[in-house]
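Discussion board: Methods & Data

I've been asked by a reviewer to show the raw model output for two of the constructs in my manuscript, not just the figures. I'm not sure how much to include, so I'm pasting the format here to get opinions. Each protein appears as its amino acid sequence followed by a line of discrete structure tokens. Is this the kind of thing reviewers expect to see in a supplement, or should I convert it first? Here is construct A:
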Amino acid sequence: MSLVVSTEDLDTLVKKWVLLDRQLKMIHEKTKEWREAKAQIVEKLSKQIEIHKLSEIETSEGKIRLMEKKEYTPLTYGFLETSLQKMIDDNEKVQQIISQLKKNREIKITKELVWK
């Protein structure tokens, strides 16, 4: 299927894409800054909550509680290989399994515009 686009339409689309791409980059950078600032505050606030043995802090927005949560590390080939080596004595078999897993991963192909 061929899409015929006039030069004017193409120029307009490119300008819109450039504008949106720049805006998204700025938002991404700002979000990164906010996350880092929030992480610093969380660290300081957590220490204060623990020092003062507070169960919660009441705010006009609601209550804040310090809770623990489990975060699992990503499932990597290195982790799988190490785990399999603990269960299977045959290193060659472990390598075959890892190779098979790598070969049979689902591949998703998408199109993306990039700056050059």
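Construct B, same format:
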Amino acid sequence: MKVYLDTCCYCRPYDDQAQVKIATETVAVMVAIETCRLAGFCIVGSMVVISELGSIYNGELRRTVERFYADTTDSYVSLNANDLARAQVLQARGMGVMDSYHLAAAEAAGVNILLTTDGSFEKICTRKKLSAVKVINPLNFLPEVMNEDDD
């Protein structure tokens, strides 16, 4: 299985942990990463994540999150012209620009699951069935993986 974490997942452990939702999603992100390692799943990174991480204003935080990303990913996908065209199609269907690039990258890499803490990204993918890639919150990763094992 291949898993892709969008930028918000890599940033989640460095967000304000005083908020219950954020703290819970942080645990879920870490559990998902550890589950991937234990199960031998491939975590795919992309130029989209790297680009977004590069825009973190706080230099120390940016370097910390970039290290976390580098330590987490097993492989990397670049976007070609076809992937960029796919992102344009996704945008035309109502998806945000960066979300469309994340999904196009995940599709290009043959990813099964894309993890995001962005509720609107998850909702549009679910509602419009835009991709074979399952876009889910990290809170739903373990149930999804357990469901896959039952199939």
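Answer (T.O., handling editor elsewhere):
This is acceptable in a supplement if you add a one-line summary per construct. For B, something like: The chain has a mean pLDDT of 95.
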